[in-house]
Amino acid sequence: MTPRLVLLDSGGANLGSVQAAFKRLGIDAPVTSDWNAIRDATHVVLPGVGAADACMTRLRENGLDRLIPRLTQPLIGICVGMQLLFDRSEESDTECLGLLRGEVRLLKSSPGVRVPHMGWNRLEGVPGAAHPLMNGLDREAVYFVHSYAAATSSDTIAATTHGLPFSAMVAKGSVMGAQFHPERSSAAGARLLSNFLSLE
């Protein structure tokens, strides 16, 4: 069965590029804030670019902050969308969706470690945390652009190191996240999106 996928309207500037990435896989990805359309979808994507507080404001304006916690189908947050899954973000002291425990914090700069973290870096699968979202992605290079990140935790299925390790991919039940940009990550990004679409 062809997945019925929707992108949640979080106001992110990457909506068009995420749509194009799914289109390359033969999947339409309409942007919506309509509750019925979202409930009827088999897969839901929460994109996000920019600031956590601006994205959360948009979700509150269209009521999606109340709907997202009720969803039971596979849900993936991308970049800032992943950060919104946690309790809070240190960025502008933003209260987020609270689907995952923890706080998103500013990456620490140091000699040779610049913030924002921008460019290609490798995924490091977490031993014992096998997840179908990670199929074929261990040690693959993907593209990051971010200044904030979540620490590794029991929900981490892949880490990446930029000075210190952080959560690059997370999963808890039907809720998942990718800190990197699959739409900019070439074959590895396409593999992630394909893995997500294969989930039921």
Q: Kindly state the number of beta strands.
A: 14
Largest sheet geometry: 8 strands, mixed
CATH class: Alpha Beta
CATH architecture: 3-Layer(aba) Sandwich
What would the CATH topology be? Answer: Rossmann fold
Shape: globular
Structure overview:
This protein is α/β, with parallel strands linked by helices and 200 residues long. The protein has a single domain (5-197), classed as Rossmann fold, CATH 3.40.50. Helices cover 22% and strands 32% of the residues. It has helices spanning 15-23, 35-40, 52-61, 64-67, 80-83, 186-197, and strands spanning 5-8, 31-32, 43-46, 75-78, 86-89, 94-95, 100-106, 117-122, 124-125, 141-146, 148-150, 156-162, 164-172, 175-178. It has an 8-stranded mixed β-sheet with strand order 2-1-3-4-14-13-12-9. The longest helix has 12 residues, at 186-197. The radius of gyration is 15 Å and the shape is globular. The model has no long low-confidence stretch (mean pLDDT 95).
Question: Notable features of this structure?
Answer:
single chain; 200 residues; alpha/beta; Rossmann fold; 4-stranded mixed β-sheet; 22% helix; 32% strand
What's this entry about, in short?
The protein is built from 6 helices and 14 strands.
Write the layout of secondary structure elements.
Blueprint: E1 5-8, H1 15-23, E2 31-32, H2 35-40, E3 43-46, H3 52-61, H4 64-67, E4 75-78, H5 80-83, E5 86-89, E6 94-95, E7 100-106, E8 117-122, E9 124-125, E10 141-146, E11 148-150, E12 156-162, E13 164-172, E14 175-178, H6 186-197
Parallel strand pairs: 1-2, 1-3, 3-4, 4-14, 5-7
Antiparallel strand pairs: 5-6, 7-11, 8-10, 9-12, 12-13, 13-14
